[in-house]
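for the writeup, i need someone to sanity check this before i put it in the appendix. the sequnce is what the collaborator sent (i think, or maybe the updated version? ugh). structure was predicted straight from it, no edits. if anything looks off just tell me and ill rerun, i have time this weekend
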Amino acid sequence: MLRHMIVVGVCTLVMACQSTPQVQQLKDANAELKAQLATANQQIGNLSSEHHIMAADNTELKRVMTILDTEKDSRTEESLVLRAQTRRFTQSMIDQYRKFLVQSNLLDFIGEELVDRTKMDIDTLVLVDLANPIPKSGTLIGIHGVFEQATQFSVNILRPIDDRFIVIWQGPLLQVKEAGVQRLTFPVTVGVERDDVIAYDFPESVGVKYDKGTGLTVASQKNFLLGASFERSALKFIDEKRAYSIGVTAILD
């Protein structure tokens, strides 16, 4: 019996000695966790403060952006009004300038001499004036010609590229109501470049006379298509050196 009590006491003493370090480890771990929690809480507090600051900054930025947008809209509206006024004024000056040049016969003329000639075409033709390419870039205003009868026609602009001509513009149908020297203006002016060639498309009959030997107007019996290209050899009357009493008026640079 005594021996049993001694054995139990010894076991209890050994277990007590073993549990003391474990308790201390748990206390240390608990202290470390508390320290980490305190650090995390501090960081949360800092982040919360920064969030409030950023929210305030964001509100201020939105306010400033609203003001800037309002100012921008105001400046844009003022700019649009000013641009519209400037365009109207500029267009008015251009119209007056063009009207003065037309009335004073001061426009540039590109074409053959406007004289009475001897021969007349009865076929429908597209006349291509190779003798009078555009000498400088500028703006076409209209047509000046000597017409033998009422007719209608349109103007094409051809641009030479390598050995071919490209149809880059086709004007509206113009009406000549009576014979004689006539001036016609395009509804809308059109820009031309140096070396562009003018073609006159008469869908019914050519109402302009011609002479042979003094010009270089050739012809096609087929209407041109916008964007189409063709070679000079596809045109006829090259050897006849025709000159027709018609040309374009322009404001050249």
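The chain has a mean pLDDT of 86. The CA atoms of residues 90 and 205 lie 40 Å apart.
thx in advance!!
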